[in-house]
Design brief:
The structure is a homodimer. Chain A is mostly helical. Chain A folds into 2 domains: 108 residues, no CATH class; 60 residues, Orthogonal Bundle (Arc Repressor Mutant, subunit A). The first copy, chain A, is 47% helix and 3% strand. The first copy, chain A, has a two-stranded antiparallel ribbon. Chain A is elongated, with a radius of gyration of 27 Å. Chain A starts with a helix and ends with a helix. In chain A, 28% of the residues are buried. Chains A and B meet through helix 1, strand 1, helix 2, strand 2 and helix 4 of A and helix 1, strand 1, helix 2, strand 2 and helix 4 of B. Strand 1 of chain A pairs antiparallel with strand 1 of chain B. Chain A binds a DNA duplex through helix 5.
Chain lengths: 221, 221
Amino acid sequence: MQQAEEYLQYQIQNGVCGKVMTDEQVEELRKQIVAYASISEQLAELHKSMSAHHDFTGIRLGNLYCDPISASVGHKITARQRWTPTALQLQILENIYEQGTGTPSKQKIKEIASELAQHGLISETNVYNWFQNRRARSKRKSQPSSVSVNGEAEARPEGVGAKDKRTKQVISDSSDNTGNGAESFYFQNSDTGIDQFIGKMEMSRGYDLYSNLVDQFGMLG
Amino acid sequence: MQQAEEYLQYQIQNGVCGKVMTDEQVEELRKQIVAYASISEQLAELHKSMSAHHDFTGIRLGNLYCDPISASVGHKITARQRWTPTALQLQILENIYEQGTGTPSKQKIKEIASELAQHGLISETNVYNWFQNRRARSKRKSQPSSVSVNGEAEARPEGVGAKDKRTKQVISDSSDNTGNGAESFYFQNSDTGIDQFIGKMEMSRGYDLYSNLVDQFGMLG
DNA sequence: TCTTTATGAATGAACG
DNA sequence: CGTTCATTCATAAAGA
């Protein structure tokens, strides 16, 4: 076996039998390629959509959304692919939710995610968010603090009082932007939009992907 | 040698030593990747130049948000309860954050707040909270597996040794109510927004490319 | 079309 | 500092 090992190394280093990649490297490579394919597709689609109209009304770049309504012939471009629980996943989640004390627990989340993964694509973050939203919305619905008709502020249920602390930061600056809020203009959601992406692309400008690959994987001589 | 040959084959086929690619395959792969990288960059550049002269997105007037779509039928303006950094403020904050000034520092906070105040309403508490959240969430995100798409990686000198690279997103059966059962990958997190694009990889194109790769190179178990 | 509803995700702020 | 809460954003689906 020792001999075989050496032979293998020899083969590899001399390129006799090609390049060897570890599974991790293959995985990494695969993801990169798929990512580029996706990006190309997205950008191509976006560009096509934009080029089709000289009037860009209704197009949002912030989140890569093109409103089919505002744009005369616009395509709908969706950048975000939100996770959606499958029926099975939802059922399991509801089950756990009702049984548990509402506390997710880091470890628990992991377990749940693993279990749900057998029924569809899912991530721990998804599970976390689900519980977060589930709890929050359940709570909100249970105490909607019905607005009383009389002028007096409605009596709020106990516990809600503490809530006021959270919203004490009141911004009453409307006067500032009534007439000339020009300096406040900015693109919505610039942190999740294409602009950010492009910025990143620029950062890697002049950066040879291929070279990077070679360095990373040491594939070519 | 015969034995070594067999051993090599065994190793390869069982993934013990990874996958082997011929030079031709590597070259093919290289071309594909470079092509995609090029396309992505060009399209991004094109798009950038096009969008440079137009404002398609929703705008915020101080703390008022106006949805561009709603605007087509009547401006829907809602008042904000919480402070939200303007684009300029955010940019400055990110800058400061990336420069590794990991520690807030009371005095520093004051300075930053003063500077940011020139670009919109802000308080020291806001700045403090922002850094707190920024750090916490960045750290949290570095823990679960993340896929770096070329230049998207680096930065974020979190200092936290993010080592665990295990894929948390599990691939399983195609029973998904979204309709596209061919999806394979979905990369969570990444605070640059590129994940929005990558999420698109669930689309058939990405999958096909991947399948093609697998077929072509016989990689992946 | 435009509005409403439901819900995954993002995030400022508060808590322990 | 790490978690958790409350609110808001973004969107798909369903109404009207």
